[in-house]
Amino acid sequence: MRRSQSTLLTTLAVITSLLFMSQFPAISPVSNVHPDDTDQERPPTTDSDGDGIPDVHENLFTEWINGTSIDGRGFAMEGLDKDDASDAMLDNDRDGMNATEEYCWP
């Protein structure tokens, strides 16, 4: 009896979640589903400078970081620039990993 109740509750939960999910709007509008009938537009640029770090991530860390260390010394770390590919190889926090490695770190 308990097993059938669990199965029934699980089935109802799945059906309810499917009904709920169908109420969300589409993530992005699709004007055409046929690949041969495109307007030849390119996909949106997600990495303007081509350094391997997406613009979204670089925009999050654009600002300089200023602070004080434990021993009272002040520090400043330069932010990332989405239009400058050379910042991908910088190690602003001096931890031995450059910006690309820190972005890819899990």
What structural keywords apply?
106 residues; alpha+beta; 3 helices; 2 strands; flat
Gap from first CA to last CA: 45 Å
Share of helix among residues? 25-40%
User: What structural class do the secondary elements suggest?
Assistant: alpha+beta
Query: Largest sheet, if any?
Result: 2 strands, antiparallel
The string of secondary-structure elements, in order, is HHEEH
- Low-confidence stretches at least 5 residues in length (pLDDT < 50)? none
Strand fraction equals 5-15%
- Shape summary: flat
Across the major sheet, the strand order is: 1-2
- Whole-number average pLDDT? 83
Rg calculated over all Cα atoms: 24 Å
* Helix count, DSSP H or I runs of 4 or more residues: 3
In total, the number of strands is 2
Task: Describe this entry's structure for a reader.
The model has no long low-confidence stretch (mean pLDDT 83). The longest helix is centred in the N-terminal third of the chain and has 20 residues, at 2-21. It contains 3 helices and 2 strands. Helices cover 30% and strands 8% of the residues. A hairpin with a 5-residue loop joins strand 1 and strand 2 (74-77). It is α+β, with helices and mostly antiparallel strands and 106 residues long. The protein has a domain at 55-104. The chain has a two-stranded antiparallel ribbon.
